[in-house]
Amino acid sequence: MHADPVRTARKAEHLDAAASPDAVHRGASGLDEVRLRHRALPGRDLAQVDLAANLLGQRLGAPVIVSAMTGGSEASRGVNVELLEAATEHGAAMILGSSRALLDEPGLVGTYRPCAARPPLLLANLGASHLVQGLTADQALRVVELLDADGLALYLNPLQEAVQPEGHPELGGAIELIADLVERLAPLPVLVKEIGFGLDPDDVALLADAGVAAVDVAGAGGTNWALVEGLRDDDARALAAPFSTWGTPTAEALRDAVRVAGLRVPVIASGGVRDGVDVARCLALGASAAGIARPMLLAARAGTAQAALGTLVEQLRVATWCAGAAAARDLGPEHLRPTA
Ligand SMILES: Cc1cc2nc3c(=O)[nH]c(=O)nc-3n(C[C@H](O)[C@H](O)[C@H](O)COP(=O)(O)O)c2cc1C
C-alpha cells in the first residue's frame, strides 16, 4: 500500500490552517484567572529551583510536553526537526503527530523522525476512531515500534471528526476498545488525550477505569479544531461556526479531572497553555505536566523552536521560585492565592 494522497494533502493543509489566527478558540482557557502566590522571600536562590519530573516512567528535564502535531507529509519534516531538537535540548517530552499513515507507508517514518534528536519521552499518536474503524493492537504496536517510541498517545476528537469533510465520526464502543488496547500494549503506556475541547469528568472516570497510563484534558482556550476544519472547506465552516466557543476551558477540565482521577492516573493539562507561567498554574492545579502545541508550531515555522521552548522553561523556573516552591513538581494548591 502507498501513502494516501488525500491524507498527505490534508496534513499539509492542517499545518497552514492551524497556524492561522482564525484557528484559535474564541473562549479563554481560564488559566489567566489562576493566581499563584508571590513570595517576596522565596527561601532559596533561583538557581536552586529543580524542574525535573517523572512522567510515564521517564525522567524529564521539565514537566513540559510538545504536544501532538504532525508527520506523514513533506511539510512535516522541517517542523518535526525543530520540535524534536527543541524538546531534546530542554528535556521535554514530545508526542508525534497522528501516525496512522505509517501502516500504509512505513517509509514515511522519516517525516516523523527526520533527525537523530530523541526527547526523554517520545509517544506515537493514533485516534480512537482508528480503533473503531478496525485498527488492531498489533498495528498500534507496530506504529510505536516503527517510531521507536516509548508508548502511545491516543486522541479523542469527536467534534473534529464531525466537522471534517473526510471525517469518521464513529466512536461507538471506543472505551471497550481502549481498555483492550491498554491491556494488549502493556507494559507500554497508553495516554489518552482530547485535542482542544476538554475531557468531561465522566470521560476521565471511564478512562481511569479502562486503565490508561495518563489523561491529557486538552481543554478549550487554544487551538479550535472545528474552526481549523472550517478554514479548509466552506461547508465545514458553516457547520463549525457555533462551535467557536465549544468545550470545557482547560483550567476547569483540569480541576475536574484531578478531582475525579488525580489519585489514580496522572493528569496532563493542555489547550491554550501559552507560556511557563501557565505551566506553573497547571502544576499548582494538580497536573503532572503541561502540553503546548500551536505556539510551538508557530515557533518551529519561524525556526525559533529551541529558543521559544527555552524561554518557556525559564519562565517556569522563575514562576516556581517566586511562588515559593523548591521544585516544579512540588507546586500545589498551597501555592495558589485563595479565591475571593
Ligand atoms: C498543527 C496541529 C496539528 C495537530 N495534530 C494532532 C494530531 O495529529 N494528533 C493529536 O492528538 N492532536 C493533534 N493536535 C492537537 C494538539 O496536540 C493539542 O491537543 C491542541 O492543539 C491544543 O493545544 P494548543 O492549544 O497548545 O494548540 C494538533 C494541533 C496542531 C496545532
What percentage of residues falls in helices of 4 or more residues? Answer: 40-55%
Mean model confidence by pLDDT: 96
**Rg from Cα:** 19 Å
What are the low-pLDDT stretches, counting only 5+ consecutive residues below 50? none
- Rough shape? globular
In the residues, how many domains can be counted?
Answer: 1
Write the layout of secondary structure elements.
Elements: H1 5-19, E1 53-55, E2 58-60, E3 64-66, H2 74-90, E4 93-95, H3 101-104, H4 109-112, E5 122-127, H5 128-132, H6 137-146, E6 151-155, H7 158-163, H8 174-185, E7 190-193, H9 201-209, E8 214-216, H10 225-230, H11 234-240, H12 250-261, E9 267-269, H13 276-284, E10 289-292, H14 294-301, H15 305-322
Parallel strand pairs: 3-4, 3-10, 4-5, 5-6, 6-7, 7-8, 8-9, 9-10
Antiparallel strand pairs: 1-2
Helix pairs in contact: 2-14, 2-15, 6-8, 9-12, 13-15, 14-15
The structure holds flavin mononucleotide (FMN).
Brief account:
This protein is α/β, with parallel strands linked by helices and 340 residues long. It has a single domain (5-335), classed as TIM Barrel (Alpha-Beta Barrel), CATH 3.20.20. It is 42% helix and 11% strand.
Describe the structure.
The chain has 340 residues and is of the alpha/beta class. The chain has one domain (5-335): TIM Barrel (Alpha-Beta Barrel), CATH 3.20.20.70. The chain contains 15 helices and ten strands. Strands 3-4-5-6-7-8-9-10 form an eight-stranded parallel beta barrel, surrounded by seven helices. A two-stranded antiparallel sheet has the order 1-2. Helix 13 links the parallel strand 9 and strand 10. The model has no long low-confidence stretch (mean pLDDT 96). The site of flavin mononucleotide (FMN) has 25 residues, from helix 1 and helix 14.
